[in-house]
Amino acid sequence: EAQVTQNPRYLITVTGKKLTVTCSQNMNHEYMSWYRQDPGLGLRQIYYSMNVEVTDKGDVPEGYKVSRKEKRNFPLILESPSPNQTSLYFCASSLKGVGGTEAFFGQGTRLTVV
Amino acid sequence: GENVEQHPSTLSVQEGDSAVIKCTYSDSASNYFPWYKQELGKRPQLIIDIRSNVGEKKDQRIAVTLNKTAKHFSLHITETQPEDSAVYFCASGHDSGGGADGLTFGKGTHLIIQP
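Above: the input entities. Below: the structure tokens describing the complete assembly.
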């Protein structure tokens, strides 16, 4: 089954404790991205990657890192989480650059930083 | 960068009536306009999309219209049903050839279908 898988689904952590949210897709998509969803603000892009070893900042990259060592995986790293990073996070992938095709979303990760 | 405005933020309609959600965008290079539906507690899923070489597209009870000159596009849902209750997001994007910087989403419309 074609899918984008994120882990964990729920995470509560403390300020400053490094964490990683994993994202994996099995559709051989080149393009992957991370969004955060906050009430009243919609979906805002954090980082995106057009292919292996190619990443770039989205609209709200501060406090986040990503890596793309393999085509299927695109982890989101919070080196020193803060309470303002409490949010619902979605990973998405698509076949190629956005001008073409549907973005498939993962099931979401609800992160709480206390 | 691109800016997408979406209205209204909340829309309540009687079951069986039509619903219309409108979006405007700012980047004249944008050429791809998808709409996503997000049910409560679930991930966003594509319901319909339109490209800039087309003015209208229909899929059963859902239609999208695009006015490139005015830089706006709309989602139309006819004969609304309870299962249409969800948050709807419009988005815009473009493929710049050598690179692409992702979709820019509107802030979402919470559609409520009243029985």
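Note for the figure: Residues 88 and 110 of chain A are 4 Å apart (CA to CA).
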